[in-house]
Amino acid sequence: MNTQNILDQMNLVVLNITLWQGRKALKSGDLAANGVDVGKLPPGTLATLGSKRIISPDAVRIFMQLKRQAMKLCLSNGVRFGGDGYAIPRERVEPLTLELKRLKGEFETAKADFLSVYEEEVEKWIDSNPTEWAPIIRASVDSLGHIKKALSFSYSAFDVKVPADIVENGLDEEVNSLYGQLCHEVRVTARQTFDNSFVGKQEITHKTLRPIKAIREKLNGLLFLDPSIAQAIQIIDDTLSKLPAQGTIKGTDLNMIAGLVGSQLASMGRVVQQELESDDVDDEPEEAETLINQNTGKVAPITWDF
After folding, report:
1. Are 154 and 104 in contact (CB under 8 A)?
2. What is residue 208's DSSP assignment?
3. pLDDT tens for each residue of 267-276
């Protein structure tokens, strides 16, 4: 499939979310001018070498949370593309942008609420720290106008076309890398899921399968990137169909689903050297790799090679 055919099946969605972290550069002059011993920095809650807080981190945490939610939404529906953008299947752009619009509304509400209590939050932060730091914090306080500009949430969806009059446009390389980026994102998610939800477990619930189903949905939307994606989806479907419909998942079933996550999805897109070197065709199905420790009955950890 050529570059434009792939581009015709996707939109580029770009997030532009800027945050104000409530931090400022901390210079030794700030300390000396206020009689603070440079060798005796305050607890890390207030300052670290190179920066100081002028407000409680709790007061601005909501903005980072909303940014992460927006990024997670884009990643669950598409794949990173062109730096700060995401390649999103066309049929998923509208529902995605509706969710981004909702998050933008929450962001704007949180911003208005924060600005209305900003000065109070600064005073609370000053009162909660050693008195000798009061002038240092006050000297670094940003204006409401500055914070209003610094906190922003926007997004855009674009069609991407190959320019007819520019031969060396770089799009071929970017588009060709999409499948590799997709495999990387699946591998990262699978390995995190395996480490967080499988290692050390003797049984799991169906709730543990949610990340696997999310990977499947992501792959299903991006089928147009590479024919092998359909094979990965089929493997997921075949494995899930063999699990009990209710109750906990353990024993050979646990080993099977752990193998799907820890071996197959965690290695998606990587060529297995053994397959390249084998000239013999074995019609007998291979037994699932044993990932459960025979002594403890628990899923054993895997040492990742990345």
Report:
1. yes
2. G
3. 999 854 344 3
